[in-house]
Write a structure and sequence with these properties.
Layout: H1 5-20, H2 24-43, H3 52-67, H4 71-91, H5 93-98, H6 100-131, H7 136-142, H8 149-159, H9 163-187, H10 193-215, H11 217-256
Amino acid sequence: MNPGQPSTMLDFVQLWVYLSATPLFGLTATLVTYVLAQAFYQRMQHAPWANPVAWTVALLALLLSVSDTPYPTYFSGAQFIHFLLGPAVVALGWPLWQRRAQLRQRGLALLAAALVGGSAAALSAVAIGWALGLPAELLRTLVPKSVTAPVAMGIADQIGGIPALAAMFALLTGLVGALSAKYLFDALRIREPEVRGFALGTTSHGIGAARAMQVHPDAGAYAGMALGVQALLASLLIPLAVPLFVSLLPALQRLFQP
């Protein structure tokens, strides 16, 4: 046995005890895990299934479960990274400013596409949940699942859903989009980076936009715009549309009854 091994192991245990008892645990665990996941992602030549966000979430969940660390203890340190999400989203505006002439020419078409895409994302989720017999509270929670998590939580709370679960649905939606979009676009023979990016930002918000930014600068710019437009449209329209849909629900149920 290496003579220095017991000392090294003792130092590691002492470091773990110290970190696990302080807010540094959440920050350190998140940064180290993401750096490792990013290195793996690059080694796999940016394969969609190696998405660093997905692997970071999975590894952190495993770490918290194995170490029996409560989520509030973890988040007390990780909240600094959570705070940086705001400036990171705002920074997506710079690529849009660089393409402002294109956006002015396509403004109405992009707005129409955002409205149709957002409506399809919300209605399809509710339709599937309804077909599976989910309760009304969960159906309301599913409505904003394609909007970035902080906005989805606010919308869910406003329409009678579950904010915490809305954030989870948004996270899962973003991960599924980031992992599967390339294969779906290839199957549909959609090559234009602007179209790919806009579709990713519309359905998979921040995680999809991050994936688009890694693939192509134009895809990232249009994904960032779609993310912002969806947040704005959803915040304005969903609280108005849900009560109207609920009032029409009995008539729809009678229409589809055998």
